[in-house]
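Write out the 3D structure for:
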Amino acid sequence: MDRFNNDAPRKMFEGNWTCSECGGAITQLPFQPDESRVGTLKCLDCHKKGRERRSERHMFEGNWTCSECGKEITQMPFEPRGDKPIKCFDCFKGSRR
């Protein structure tokens, strides 16, 4: 099954697990959890909260140039080191395909 096919219904796994953050009950998951990771499971609400926190990442301001296309870059999610080439978001995204 194509994992990017959004029309196909997602298989859900039934169980009795506990959220590692809030202690709430988890009865369904979209994957079969590995026994060694059961203690790290999160309910849907806690999972979503974690994603929201990640999006609030600190951005570094500066004046850089993309090493591939030459586009000006004014914000980066990390502070670039002088010895490493940096890419704009579009070039970075294109290189990950």
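The mean pLDDT is 85.
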